[in-house]
Structure formats: structure tokens, C-alpha cells
Amino acid sequence: MNPPVRELVLASHNAGKLKEFQALLGDSLRLRLVSEFSKEEPEETGLSFVENAILKARHAARVSGLPALADDSGLAVDFLDGAPGIYSARYAGGKDDKANNLKLLQALQGVPDEQRTARFVCSLALMRHAEDPLPILCEGLWEGRILHEIRGHGGFGYDPLFWTSDWGCSSAELPASEKNRLSHRARAVALLKQRLELV
């Protein structure tokens, strides 16, 4: 069994993400942002969520000298052969969430509901050190489908287009507490906690 890790560097410069992950992981771990150690961001050259998560975690472990946790997340739409996938955040050429959502709606114009199946994906990689040959990998999936129009004002990214049958609404219409229970990120973190024996 792996010994529990008490302090981790989160491979992110986003304080909001730090807060979300800290809430999901609880008090057993203390998370620190990689920006405490370096402003440099590694190039995401992987061709899958898990490859990019490993690249980011390895970089964070290298610059901090501490164990590092990274996630790579996005939306995979079946009709579009998994797109926008690893390019979810920059699907519309690096513009904002609204532009990404509009591009997705255009790509699915005229596609019936039964062919609009999709899932949010979160791949987590935990590296004990920068040269760790056996990172801990956990994946969370959240199944749904893509709506024909934007609904709701909560969340971010593709939340206003992602229909969740559990609640019969878009992810952007869910209470934050419920989204944090159902989401792909929550599912991946639950697996990680089991692996680290934090449950």
C-alpha cells in the first residue's frame, strides 16, 4: 500500500480549482498551488487526458520538489468522435466559454437527441516525485447529452449545454453542492481518496 501523502502541489495556477480540490479531498491533505514555485506552465503535448495530466503533474513535482497532483478534464461528444476532448478549453481557438458553446451547438446543428450523447472526463495523475515511474491514475466520467440551446447560469465551460438525466436539467442549473457530488472531478477524486486510503 502507498503511504498517505500529507502535502501535495496542485498543478494549477487557479485558486478556484485549489479550493474545489481541497474541499473534495478534505483535511487529510494540504494542497498548494504550483504557482508558489514557478509561473511556467508545461506544454500540453499529450494526445489524451491522462497523458496531459501526467505531463502537468511531473512538471509540478519537478519545480516544487513535492508530490504533485494534476487533472486534465474536458467534454467528449460521441457524434463528434470524442471532440472537443483535450481541446475543450480552446475549442473555439482560445476564445471564451460562450464561443466554445456556440461552436459546439453549430457542430451538432440538426443532430437528434439520441445522437447527442456525451460525457465529461476527468483524468487525475498523482506523482510522488518527478521521476515516479508508476503515477497513481484515476478517471471520473459523468454521462449526459448535449442540449440544443444554453440553459442555466451556474457553473462554467460546457455546463449550460450538458443535460444530466439524474436531475433532469443542465449542469448549469444544478445546485453547486449537487454538481460537486455528481461531477466527473468528484468521481475521480473519490477514487483517488480510496487509493490514498483517505476514506
Automatic annotation (TrEMBL):
Cofactor binding, per record: Binds 1 Mg(2+) ion per subunit.
Residues the entry annotates as binding Mg(2+): 43, 72
Keywords assigned by UniProt, alphabetized: Hydrolase, Magnesium, Metal-binding, Nucleotide metabolism, Nucleotide-binding
Residue numbers binding substrate: 12-17, 73, 156-159, 179, 184-185
Cofactors (names): Mg(2+)
Taxonomy, superkingdom: Bacteria
SUPFAM superfamilies: ITPase-like
Single biological process term from Gene Ontology: nucleotide metabolic process
One GO CC annotation: cytosol
EC number: 3.6.1.66
Residues of the active site: 72 (proton acceptor)
Catalysed reaction equations from the record: dITP + H2O = dIMP + diphosphate + H(+); ITP + H2O = IMP + diphosphate + H(+); XTP + H2O = XMP + diphosphate + H(+)
Pfam families linked: Ham1p_like
Main EC class the enzyme belongs to: hydrolase
Gene3D superfamilies in the record: 3.90.950.10
Gene Ontology MF terms in the entry: dITP diphosphatase activity; ITP diphosphatase activity; metal ion binding; nucleotide binding; ribonucleoside triphosphate phosphatase activity; XTP diphosphatase activity
Annotated PANTHER family: INOSINE TRIPHOSPHATE PYROPHOSPHATASE, INOSINE TRIPHOSPHATE PYROPHOSPHATASE/HAM1 PROTEIN
Assembly, per entry: Homodimer.
Function: Pyrophosphatase that catalyzes the hydrolysis of nucleoside triphosphates to their monophosphate derivatives, with a high preference for the non-canonical purine nucleotides XTP (xanthosine triphosphate), dITP (deoxyinosine triphosphate) and ITP. Seems to function as a house-cleaning enzyme that removes non-canonical purine nucleotides from the nucleotide pool, thus preventing their incorporation into DNA/RNA and avoiding chromosomal lesions.
Protein name: dITP/XTP pyrophosphatase
Biological classification of the source: Bacteria, Pseudomonadati, Pseudomonadota, Gammaproteobacteria, Pseudomonadales
